[in-house]
What we know:
11 strands; homodimer; 39% helix; Luciferase-like_sf (chains A, B); TIM Barrel; alpha/beta; FMN-dependent oxidoreductase, nitrilotriacetate monooxygenase family (chains A, B); 16 helices; oxidoreductase (chains A, B)
Amino acid sequence: MAGIRRQLKLGAFLYPTGHHIAAWRHPLTQADAGSNFAHYVGLAQIAEAAKFDLIFLADGAGTRGDDTEALHRTAQRYVAQFEPITLLSALAAVTKNIGFVATASTSFNEPYHIARKFASLDHISGGRAGWNLVTSSSDHEAHNFGRDEHYAHAERYERAEEFADVVLGLWDTWEEDAFPRNKQSGIYYDPQKQHILNHKGKHFKVRGPLNVARAPQGHPVLVQAGSSEPGRELAARTAEVVFTAHQTIEDARAFYADLKGRLAKYGRDHDDLKIMPGIFPVVGRTREEAQRKFAELQDLVHPVVGLSMLNGMSGGVDLSQYPLDGPIPDLPETNGSKSRQKLLLDLARRENLTIRELYLRIAGARGHWQIVGTPIDIADQMEEWFRREAADGFNVMPPQLPTGLYDFVEHVLPELRRRGLFRNDYEGSTLRENLGLKVPLHPARHAVAAE
Amino acid sequence: MAGIRRQLKLGAFLYPTGHHIAAWRHPLTQADAGSNFAHYVGLAQIAEAAKFDLIFLADGAGTRGDDTEALHRTAQRYVAQFEPITLLSALAAVTKNIGFVATASTSFNEPYHIARKFASLDHISGGRAGWNLVTSSSDHEAHNFGRDEHYAHAERYERAEEFADVVLGLWDTWEEDAFPRNKQSGIYYDPQKQHILNHKGKHFKVRGPLNVARAPQGHPVLVQAGSSEPGRELAARTAEVVFTAHQTIEDARAFYADLKGRLAKYGRDHDDLKIMPGIFPVVGRTREEAQRKFAELQDLVHPVVGLSMLNGMSGGVDLSQYPLDGPIPDLPETNGSKSRQKLLLDLARRENLTIRELYLRIAGARGHWQIVGTPIDIADQMEEWFRREAADGFNVMPPQLPTGLYDFVEHVLPELRRRGLFRNDYEGSTLRENLGLKVPLHPARHAVAAE
């Protein structure tokens, strides 16, 4: 049964209090979510009972921004929340099937630590770990790691390319059956099946081997989110899941075709990489109820927070000097996230939005696809994106937590299941099995197979 | 009741297959312990049921050594095992009271990551986290982080001093009640209770604030193990638990008096720092049974492994060129662990050991205190060390796992309890409460209190 019909892959993207910028102020939201472990245990168990493929956590190694007037009114911007790997490792101990994708930046980490922590998480979880590789585009993070500013865009990606290669190389330092652990002969590991890395590159010099046995999944699943040109090329070469942001099906289809089209030159198949755009669903039994629920959240956005959020997303330009109810001014090219800036400007121009309208427009989904409607409205659009090759699945971004996750699970999932678009039970016990991704064999096995 | 009578503090120091170098070959040992999460869940639950204060994990960010002939016959030397923070975070989710101390080196880490991960673990566990601060003295680790050799002893400690200050400073960037999270007013945090660090030192430049709220314990418990002169001074200034290695009560008493004597100049009390030597107990119902159990393990030591282990501990000098049954040659001063070298040489000279006898002598406890005897023998000596101020407690190093932990819990703990030396139940739910350590108030509170 499983695997015959193509079905949606679904991630639960858990921002502590939910994705809407004002979610924490809602009466039903867990305001202390960023340091409330029981809150996350509850969410993980609901997402697993609902058969989500994975839980996805974003990350910033530092608070993003120093505009205290806005920051002290928000639960977002990484002001105070769990570090993702520690959180997901703890959640792995109280779940059985759901996968765990933690974001970790290549800008301010060492590849040995990252390779080791994700391999460890893969063993702890029995093959349910994934790494969302990002580059950091925030000076605020750089300031916590001895630098005055973050790396320029090109250098950031050059470093990320090499970082990914080192991590993948470290994951391949042990073959699958490298550890006979034979008590009689006293042979713990087979030296022929250990491979020293000896990487010497421009940014990193790493000998290896990794001091964790080969991961149950071969490699933890490699996830990426960059959609700039170097980001797409890195994804086409190495990523297995791409989390992306699109406002329209046309944009999503173009991205999908472009990225899938780049796979062949790296010897990869169409299904070796799953594209999962973000979706911010506000669910109501009627459209009116959905609009009312959304308005409740929008009404809680403090103007200082909305404006600051927009500033952060528009490359550091201070928009407060322009009239709130006037048009978006021209923005200079930034060293930050180019794709995010373009997406925002396109949105504002397309819909002819004022500054105020734009910040309210992105207060929920932060540039991701936002649908406010009934379960049927939402399922219709998800189905259309899926069937028309705009998406292999979605990273679901609940507006508020925990209730936004309940709404999706209780109302939208049954509709997707009725249409045969989502699983009734897990296909396997590893993240790869559920995502339908191959287990990467050790390169030495390929060599044997080719003989 | 609790707190009136001074009692032993006990750690369970869990090396994957146990501390004896050949433990993994024993028929009852879990040979795949380094990647068997269920094994650790079982150990943690037994240690918690037995009311141990904490579980302690050592660490190396890389395999120690490249002598494949020896390495491929051992489950130690960090060949392949869980990364400690991911492992302890997962164990926190399936326990309620026991503390968790993970080792992390200041040599190849960033203080922001370390401060953040331990603060996160403290929140996840409800106040049960501790950080064992070590410096790395292995070139093999250095090779995984872009360096040709590890830092020289003095520089290592200079870096460690500054690293500790940055981490402590980051843990103090939020006051206890910094997060009102007031939904009506929209105030998530109180900017007056956030403190930017802005550290600019010789080794690190870190702005902060930390993006995790103040830890439930104020600070996770700070543990250290260095016993060189700069190691003692750093411990006297900052450590709350010191894990140490002594072969004789005289050495242990001298160390205890010296370290406790250094506290006053930093404004600290005698009980603000707990000294917990390692103890490697081989338990038998009779002395003969204990000796037989020990001999079973000793017989499993392959000479190549024993010799290599000694080489590693004697500062890299290749002892295989000397006669196995002859005396230990003079060893040059090393850039590695000076205190460990001295301890080994003193032991060999005191007991007039050959090279072979020395490696068998340390094959179990690796320089720590080893007792082979009945529960009463072991309790007698622990009591003597405790009453004569050689120890505030012990870090128990089971020879093999899981059975070595069972032996101690089933036979030695009842004897300690009969003597009133160990708790019947936890005093509290945090590691600090159980260790009898003060919760550090935020410096701003001290300022208020002093007004």
